[in-house]
């Protein structure tokens, strides 16, 4: 059962109409990123990669010996939020590693190929400064982490050590009937808005192209993949389909399903995410 704090946070999201955040960007004006919170400034380093800001959040003790590249969610139309910084800080401190948090270009100004190539530049920067590199992301960020891994495989580049996916958005077609079914979950968008955002990101590519929707890709030869999802997540059914394909390809390391948890619950600043944070930090630290 979810805690009172979780339910209060969901109530706050309802009151602030969080479900309309993505809808407001579908006119082609991507939402600007928030800056790094003041409380993290002493632990944060700001670097520039190809004209884009990339934040590096270090443990309180100083730069870690390993790094994790985390791509934030937001349907490719929302920038960084304070919640993303908060999650990065938690993972950095718990895993004892530096977390690289790119403020990547957004749709519709940028689309699949440009965003994926930027992610690859971030990976190369990280690999140059740290010997051990893992990647991952939440929602659309999970999609981007997979797009990056597939891009590197297809170009015979080195793979990250591990891929960590949190409520990943992996099938941008979202054709499964469950995506449009009734749900009490508080989500930052509904299926209709997500499909519209997917078109902005895909541009001239079909959304079923493996570069857009990793569910349709050949997953063999990738790094081990760990997936964290809540069973009332809007994307849960699609996530299970992808997990089965990853298992068949021999690359599924872990599938963790959390009861009564919704989309990207790992961002919620409530005790309900504690066990997920512990498990994810263990994966990153390994």
What do you see in this structure?
- This protein has 286 residues and is α/β, with parallel strands linked by helices.
- It has a single domain, classed as Rossmann fold, CATH 3.40.50.1820.
- Helices cover 34% and strands 16% of the residues.
- It contains 7 helices and 8 strands.
- The chain has an 8-stranded mixed beta sheet with strand order 1-2-4-3-5-6-7-8, sandwiched between helices.
- Helix 2 (82-95) crosses helix 7 (274-285) and helix 3 (112-129) packs across helix 4.
- The protein is globular.
Short description:
This protein is of the alpha/beta class. The chain has a single domain, classed as 3-Layer(aba) Sandwich (Rossmann fold).
The assigned structural class equals: alpha/beta
CATH architecture: 3-Layer(aba) Sandwich
How many strands?
A: 8
Order of helices and strands: HEEEHEHEHEHEHEH
Strand order of the largest sheet: 1-2-4-3-5-6-7-8
Q: What's the gyration radius in Å?
A: 17 Å
CATH topology value: Rossmann fold
Which ranges are low-confidence, i.e. pLDDT below 50, for 5 or more consecutive residues? Answer: none
Name the CATH class.
Alpha Beta
Q: How much helix, percentage-wise, in residues? A: 25-40%
CATH superfamily: Alpha/Beta hydrolase fold, catalytic domain
| Biggest sheet architecture | 8 strands, mixed
Integer count of domains: 1
N-to-C CA distance: 30 Å
Approximate shape: globular
DSSP helical segment count: 7
């Amino acid at each position: 059962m979810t805690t009172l704090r979780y339910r209060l946070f969901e109530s706050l999201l309802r009151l602030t109409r969080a479900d309309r955040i993505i809808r407001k960007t579908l006119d082609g004006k991507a939402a600007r990123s928030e800056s790094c919170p003041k409380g993290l400034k002493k632990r944060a380093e700001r670097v520039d990669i190809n004209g884009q800001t990339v934040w590096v959040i270090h443990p309180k003790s100083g730069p870690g010996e390993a790094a994790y590249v985390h791509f934030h969610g937001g349907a490719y139309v929302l920038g960084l939020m304070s919640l993303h910084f908060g999650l990065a800080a938690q993972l950095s401190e718990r895993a004892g590693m530096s977390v690289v948090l790119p403020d990547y270009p957004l749709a519709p100004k940028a689309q699949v190929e440009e965003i994926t190539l930027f992610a690859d530049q971030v990976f190369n920067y990280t690999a140059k400064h740290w010997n051990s590199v893992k990647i991952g992301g939440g929602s659309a960020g999970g999609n981007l982490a997979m797009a990056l891994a597939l891009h590197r495989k297809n170009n015979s580049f080195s793979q990250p050590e591990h891929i960590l996916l949190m409520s990943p958005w992996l099938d941008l077609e979202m054709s499964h009937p469950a995506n449009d079914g009734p749900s009490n979950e508080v989500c930052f968008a509904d299926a209709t808005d997500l499909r519209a955002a997917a078109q902005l990101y895909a541009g001239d590519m079909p959304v079923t192209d493996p570069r857009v929707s990793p569910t349709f890709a050949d997953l063999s030869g990738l790094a081990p993949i760990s997936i964290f999802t809540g069973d009332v997540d809007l994307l849960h059914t699609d996530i299970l389909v992808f997990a089965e394909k990853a298992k068949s390809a021999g690359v599924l390391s872990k599938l963790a399903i959390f009861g009564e948890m919704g989309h990207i619950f790992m961002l919620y600043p409530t005790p309900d995410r504690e066990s997920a944070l512990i498990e994810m930090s263990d994966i990153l630290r390994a």
